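Final report, closing paragraph on structural work. Over the funding period we assembled a curated collection of sequence-structure pairs, and we close with a single example.
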Amino acid sequence: MRTFTWRRRLVYATVSLLLIGLIGVPGLALYTGAALPDATEAMATDAMVQVDASRWLVFRPLPRPPGSTRLGPPGTPTGLIFYPGGGVDPIAYAPLARAIAGAGHPVIILPVTLRLAFFDVDAASPVFATFPEIRRWAIGGHSLGGVAASWYARANPDQVSGLILWAA
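Its predicted structure, as stored:
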């Protein structure tokens, strides 16, 4: 009698886990923390920051206009590669990326598979070859994205000079 109860529990547990996986993962992919209106506005190119959303969300500082009060180092800046948090629209980080780029540092926000960064830990790898003019990189992320960034930094210490964790 005990074997029957044990087997029944095992079958119920297995079926439950399969259902959670079959329903939960696609449901999580459909759920997205929507970007606020100010994030959408931050996606526009202006005199200080060029925005490109073709492959990644790229926020590139433009050359300083004469008399500019923009802070930041002259010459080759440190770039930031940023992994979004789980279920969060990458555009939600546009105001932060714009502020960092406005200070003179390029920012690349990585869209990740199913909006879960741990499925795309190596998403940062092609960025280095795409932007060879940037010689120093920091990598970071918010929440689950910070976990993925730390995994990437640990596996690739020769490519990353700094790690930024935001609520991770």
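Residues 25 and 137 are 32 Å apart (CA to CA). The longest helix spans residues 2-30. We thank the funder for supporting this effort.
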